[in-house]
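forwarding from the other thread:

> can someone predict this with thiamine diphosphate?

sure thing
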Amino acid sequence: MKDYKVLGRVNSYKDLQNLSPEEIKQLAEEVRNYIIDITSKKGGHIGPSLGVVELTIALLLSFDPIKDKIVWDIGHQAYAYKILTDRKERFKTLRDYGGISGFTKIKESIYDHFGAGHSSTSISAALGMRIGKDLKNKDGYTVAVIGDGAMTAGQAFEGLNNAGWLDPSKFIIILNDNQMSISANVGAIYTYFNRIITNKVFQKPRRALKVAANKLFGKSAVSILRKLEEYAKGLFTPGIIFEELGFNYIGPIDGHSIFSLKETFENIKNMQGPILIHVITKKGKGYKPAEENPISYHGMSPFDKITGVPVKKKTNQPTWSEIFGNALVELASKDEKIVAITPAMKEGSGLVNFAKNFPDRFFDVGIAEQHAATFAGGLAIEGLKPVLAYYSTFLQRGYDQVIHDLALQELPVLLAIDRAGLVGEDGPTHHGVFDIAFLRCIPNIVICAPKDAKELRDLLFTGINSGKLFAIRYPRGTAYGKSDTPFEKIKIGSWEILEEGRDIAVLATGKYVYRGLKVREILKKKGLNPTIVNARFIKPFDTEILDKILKTHEYIVTLEDGVLSGGFGSSMIEYITDNNYKNIITRFGIPDRFIEHGKIDILEEKLGLTSEAIANRIESFIQDKSFKIVS
Ligand SMILES: Cc1ncc(C[n+]2csc(CCOP(=O)(O)OP(=O)(O)O)c2C)c(N)n1
């Protein structure tokens, strides 16, 4: 901390009160430099966090983060908050296994009042805290800090609706408006916020119009104009929507001016009823590469601090997302019915080229996973072929819509489920480990997982033209194999036997198919010869191959990058039991607990999911004939 003259002296948020205005400004610079320094080594949400440095300091100057409850939406922008509450030193371990989380987390600190990672929960959580305090006659403010992106989600509006009705005092929402979601923000709400911010632009022509009217038609024309203007005011008064919902709207105000923010916070403390303060910030503020490229710097891998260039060179092998996105462009160029939908994840889901090539057939619906599913259903009703790209973890938000709107009505929508399995440093809120288990129980759905690039292309081709609700899950990172292969249909429900052996059969899904092949190599050196099956369809599965395997192999091993409770392995146990087979089965996957953050390699090692660990367990299982689950 020796380079940090002011930050080095700040050991608690209480120390901020003793700093001079000059030192406060210096502190903001130093916190910013510290965030840049650590994220350049660890990666993380640098842009969002740099944007709220001043806001964080102003909040900590005006509120007591123990008595008053500050709730950060998503929590990805809370780095300055972490540094200035109790985690200055620990911040050096950001996103490391065992280190500081990239999001707010109750277990991490007494200052994190609500954990997050998924968006748009802050208003509901803070409102619950506010009402809870009231019921228990406890003092203190509750403050929800929510971005303009997060404000596009239904849950944010559910919270606003309820808050406007309950009408609590000492309940403050800070709308942190940087006009960006991960991509540029979208939607009518965004347009509305934009209109508030650019209201000055509206003022100019209005003034010019008055002068012109006076010159041309005299004073009476000006008075008519004024009446019209009063009528128009209803449309253009900043924040009228929030006012109508029962909030005191204050803003828009400069989110980088610590002292005007502080003044505003002090001024509103005695106001009655809920308050919404609209704060304008710049994503990536103070770090040129991040200001210039807010989309890439929303979340970065480690980078060179001086140039801003990522340290890790991009390999030639494309990611699963890129393979999906490129294949979709190829298919859509020959089929006008194909449309793509994303709930605010255009870049991450590999849809940038699709959006460029087919702007009329591309829909970024905002952070609206529920709406996205039902909207896709509507498109399917009209005969289109909707491809709905979700991250596995965010699909959780659209679960009822998948059941009620898509599966029940047998609507042909393709669910492209990216980031399935462990995702690494983003941790438990983002691991995509539940989808097999929660989709498998839904009737009328096909679920599959490709082993490599070609299979992803072929499954996409098969699924889009299947007339079914068809889910393809694939992981984060680069895919195996060639990605310029011609499209071929795959029989729905079919598996493939990749290696024929004896006694032991390894049934692997998705990314773990190649791991299964590695496991076989290791076991062969130990004198064992397992059969390896690519269980690419999780539902329906290949009963023909499965029956054959069960009749010819005593030991069955399942490999999946999803939860063991109710997952693919569970479906095999069900089949074995329901059909009176007597095989001995063991399952490899994610045990029944939330998996922490950290590099995927480390997590897999801890969970006994490396090829070596799997091979060793299979070997000892054969020796003592008892399968155990690592937890
Ligand atoms: C339910 C859900 N869907 C998608 C995401 C992915 N996501 C993380 S941050 C973000 C954009 C948030 O924008 P905003 O609230 O304006 O915050 P900013 O990053 O601009 O500060 C998105 C879409 C998420 N965290 N949660």
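The pocket of thiamine diphosphate is lined by residues 48, 51, 74, 76-77, 118-119, 147-150, 178, 180-182, 283, 298, 344, 367, 369, 394, 397 (CB under 6 Å). thats all i got for now
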